[in-house]
Amino acid sequence: MLSEGRETLKEVIQAVAPIALIVLIVLAVLTSSPVSDLVNYALGVIMLTAGITLFLIGVNNGLLPMGEAIGSDLPKHGSIYLVICIAFFFGFLATVAEPDVRVLTNMVEIVSNGGIARDPMILSIAAGVGIFVALAMLRIVVGVPITWLFTGGYLLVIILALFTPADYLQIAYDAGGVTTGPLTVPFILALGIGLSSVLAGRSALTDGFGLIGLASIGPIIGIMLLGILV
């Protein structure tokens, strides 16, 4: 556990250090920020590094094994409806807890002066992810080619784009990106890999991946529908 923590910390430092150093140079040289701001920035970088390290340790030791265990256990109950409901439930809740989604919806609410409320956006994004995660799990069980879901999903996106208000259209495409965050991605992948690994004729490699691409279609459609209805 200790060696894993050191390795994770090393990886996080390698990822954070370059951008942190560039920002520090910009603050110190170009903007001539006071020393107090530089100190606060340095403390923020330290807390960010520690937070990401602890988060990744938690993902590797808790979230991933739990997702795989749930995915591999679902087929044992012999109910396709249970698989769909559980997939939607976890996809929805993981998205509600996703930090990237919170950042996007908060910024939209601030920029629109409350004209586009945060909570309806979060629910629309989460519902979209939940529905498409459920479809992705159903695809694994039934054996439907993933290209069919991608084709149908993006055809629907193109059609809805013709009717979606401009203010919501840009937000919709950003919503598709923010759902591929550090909380949603590990759990959805683990769930799909666990499910595909115990089904006869399924491959964890060919059937367990592609889920994030499918899940990112849901928020786009969800925000578009919200814009059309509102």
Task: Outline the structure in words.
The chain folds into two domains: 1-62, no CATH class; 78-229, no CATH class. It is an all-alpha fold and 230 residues long. It has ten helices and no strands. The model has no long low-confidence stretch (mean pLDDT 84). The longest helix is centred in the first third of the chain and has 39 residues, at 35-73. Helix 1 (2-30) packs antiparallel against helix 2 (35-73), helix 3 (80-96) runs antiparallel to helix 5 (118-142) and helix 4 (99-111) packs antiparallel against helix 5. It is flat and about 60 Å long.
Instruction: Note poorly predicted spans.
Output: none
Number of helical segments with 4 or more residues: 10
From the N-terminal CA to the C-terminal CA, the straight-line distance is 50 Å
Estimated radius of gyration: 20 Å
Fraction of residues in helices?
Answer: over 70%
Global structural class: mainly alpha
| Largest pleated sheet | none
Q: Average pLDDT across residues? A: 84
Number of DSSP strand runs: 0
Question: Proportion of β residues?
Answer: under 5%
| Count of the domains | 2
Order of helices and strands: HHHHHHHHHH
Brief summary:
With 230 residues, the chain is an all-alpha fold. It has helices at 2-30, 35-73, 80-96, 99-111, 118-142, 146-161, 166-178, 184-198, 211-215, 217-229. It has 2 domains: 1-62, no CATH class; 78-229, no CATH class.
Task: List its traits.
230 residues, mainly alpha, 2 domains, 80% helix
List the helices and strands and how they pair.
Layout lengths: L1 H29 L4 H39 L6 H17 L2 H13 L6 H25 L3 H16 L4 H13 L5 H15 L12 H5 L1 H13 L1
Helix pairs in contact: 1-2, 2-8, 3-5, 3-8, 4-5, 4-7, 5-8, 5-10, 6-10, 7-10
